[in-house]
Design a protein that fits this description.
Chain lengths: 200, 470
């Protein structure tokens, strides 16, 4: 997993709540056995018209927004299915961070495991970022995990968290910033696993 | 000191390591695998030259992709076939017990775990599938995983978890006639919302839960994730023990009675404190139908489609307008006037023998409406055989239903069972998301009884008023 410190990128606004993982990547595209190649199917059914051509009204098909690397959206993003393909599709497409007021739990964990930064800010701030991004195609935001702050060139400074719980926030911030892989962390404690197994 | 909840008891007894400020490392007793969320995990093991730590605690089956039609024929979709073959290659390479396409024990992963008796009280059970909480109906702590965590469990047999808060949902009283376990959970989701359970492990308690058979309890736990909760559980009792006794993988004979003694200790202590408690009176529950594109957009069969203009928050209004457009519904239309093109009885939510019996009881002596295509997809091959032994297949076929092989099928449409664009379906599954059952398909979630009645009438109808013919 790549380490993440900070990132500046174009914001793609998706002004919807409860976006479920079936929308992020529909089931028919989950059949690949690799972690790559899911990008073209990101938001497939919103992104394409029934004839398969790009839907010009969908944000990912609009100039500037199509090159966004920071997605901003409303609460409970990533609800529904546990498919990690949703995170892979976002990352394969080029997204580095998703800003929302809350994340569905399984998606939230999957993001940490892959290094997609789940940025949590209150609803009012989501509205501000959505508005700035919608009015100004190419609008950029700076996501800084060092001081956990979002900023832009127009004086915006918003503190953020990556988890509601303090311990989890600190732990996951550390693993993201150091690109730590959970399996290696756990296997460093293999003696404890063996001890547990021998106990019973 | 206050007593412990069942959640705490199981959590505490599985702690391998619990460093301050870090997630807890928990030991996993049972890891269930299927073809969709496992290939990248096995590939990860190979790349890192790792083994499966406990193949003896790992069970695999194939359910999401497989066709529900004649299985002696080759699979038409080459990518589905590759995913299925990848699983059968991986289980061979890593020495994992596998219930393949032609195994009599094959079925939906959350149906066969309990059916074979792998699912037992007090276990920590994981699966790369959001409906893993189903196993919580037996007093297990069942947790859904993404693929990276599947790989983590394969490699270490452990799971890193932040401890959730606990929520008790207590259903008091007695279920009214015609109101099923599915209606209980749809009612709960309608009440607390699609993220109301986020951050919590839910324990369902109360008289209604005690009165339900295991199948109904599984239906309720199964849809915990639709309320945002990864974990849903029910304390084991005599119903649980009687259901499990004699299953292939449970202790046999006197050992089973010894196991019961231990399992009886799992229930939450009477003075245990939950972080949140919600009480619901069963007499308020009705048969429900979802009208929108998430499971929280749900109404009683006696209601009419809501008017976004009368809603309060901007978010709710926006979401309702989108949902009504997608679902092609107009405000104030009575739910009973909505006609359906398709009916699907199946999925890990409602494909068990009691679900099939309940649906068959409704349709017995009737014919499926000529405008409706209706299918039944049993949850496992053994359930299919059981139903055939009871003659339920004949009831369905005589009424005009298609009687299929076991699998996830039209719940998510990874196999050929999908809705055509703009088709409307009464479905016993768990998600009414846009495109869930096929691109531009329209899903209404209901109980098996309500789905069966809709198949006959061609539109939704209140099963409380149903006239049984036989």
């Amino acid at each position: 997993m790549d380490a993440f410190n900070s990132h500046t990128g174009i914001v793609t606004p998706l002004d919807r709540a409860n976006v479920d993982t079936d929308q992020i990547i529909p089931a028919e595209y989950l059949k690949r056995v690799e972690r790559s190649g899911f990008g073209p199917f990101l938001f497939n059914d919103w992104r394409k018209l029934p004839n398969g051509k790009p839907n010009p009204d969908f944000v990912l098909n609009k100039a500037f927004y199509d090159t966004g690397t920071v997605l901003v959206t409303r609460k409970n993003f990533g609800s529904g299915s546990s498919r990690e393909h949703a995170v892979w599709a976002l990352m394969n497409h080029g997204f580095k961070a998703v800003i929302s007021s809350s994340f569905a739990e399984i998606f939230h964990k999957n993001s940490f495991e892959n290094g997609l930064v789940p940025v949590i800010v209150p609803d009012e701030q989501i509205s501000i970022i959505l508005e700035r991004a919608s009015k100004q195609p190419g609008y950029q935001i700076h996501v800084d995990l060092n001081n956990c702050e979002l900023s832009d060139d127009h004086g915006l400074h918003i503190p953020f968290r990556i988890h509601e719980d303090d311990d989890t926030h600190a732990f996951r911030r550390n693993t993201l910033m150091n690109g730590l892989d959970s399996i290696s962390l756990t296997l460093a404690n293999e003696n404890k696993i063996t001890a547990y197994e021998n106990r019973s | 000191m206050a007593g412990k909840t069942m959640f705490d008891k199981i959590w505490d007894s599985h702690i391998v390591d619990d460093p301050a400020g870090e997630p807890t490392l928990l030991y996993v007793d049972l890891h269930l695998i299927h073809e969709v969320t496992s290939p990248q995990a096995f590939e990860g093991l190979r790349l890192a030259n790792r083994k499966v730590r406990r193949p003896d605690l790992t069970i695999a089956t194939v359910d999401h992709n497989i066709p529900t039609t004649d299985r002696t024929l080759p699979i038409e979709d080459p990518i589905s076939e590759q995913q299925i073959n990848t699983l059968s290659d991986n289980v061979k390479e890593f020495g994992i017990k596998y219930y393949g396409v032609h195994s009599p024990e094959q079925g939906i992963v959350h149906v066969i775990g309990p059916q074979e008796g792998y699912t037992q009280p007090g276990k920590i059970i994981v699966c790369g599938d959001s409906h893993t909480a189903t196993h919580g109906a037996f007093g297990a702590l069942a947790i859904p995983l993404g693929t990276s965590q599947v790989e983590h469990v394969l490699a270490t047999q452990c799971l890193l978890q932040e401890k959730p808060k606990t929520m008790e949902i207590k259903i008091n009283g007695e279920l009214p006639k015609g109101v099923s376990a599915k209606d209980v959970i749809l009612g709960i989701i309608g009440k607390i919302g699609v993220d109301g359970g986020s951050g919590y492990a839910i324990e369902y308690t109360g008289e209604v839960i005690r009165s339900l058979p295991m199948e109904g309890r599984m239906t309720i736990c199964n849809m915990s994730i639709e309320a945002g909760a990864r974990v849903g559980m029910i304390a084991p009792d005599a119903t649980t023990f009687n259901w499990l006794r004699g299953k292939n993988q449970v202790p046999q004979g006197d050992d089973f009675d010894l196991a019961i003694k231990e399992w009886e200790q799992l229930s939450s202590d009477s003075d245990a404190i939950y972080d949140t408690t919600i009480e619901i009176n069963a007499s308020e529950l009705e048969p429900y139908v979802t009208w929108g594109t998430n499971p929280g957009q749900v109404l009683s069969i006696q209601d009419s489609i809501p008017d976004p203009a009368k809603m309060e928050s901007a978010e709710e209004i926006d979401s309702a307008i989108r949902a009504l457009e997608y679902m092609d519904l107009k405000p104030n239309t009575p739910i009973t006037e909505i006609s359906v093109d398709r009916v699907f009885i199946g999925s890990c939510t409602n494909s068990r023998i009691t679900d099939l019996r309940a649906a068959a009881e409704i349709i017995n002596g009737y014919k499926v409406n000529p405008n409706v295509n209706a299918i039944v997809v049993p949850g496992s091959t053994l359930i299919k055989w059981q139903a055939e032994k009871e003659g339920l297949d004949l009831v369905f076929k005589e009424a005009g239903f298609e009687w299929r092989e076991a699998g996830c099928s039209m719940c998510l449409g990874m196999n050929p069972d999908t809705l055509d664009p703009h088709e409307r379906c009464a479905s016993t599954s768990n998600r009414n998301f846009e495109g869930r059952q096929g691109k531009d398909g329209r899903t209404h979630l209901v109980s098996p009884q309500m789905a069966a009645a809709a198949a006959i009438e061609g539109h939704f109808i209140d099963v409380r008023e149903w006239e049984f013919k036989k």
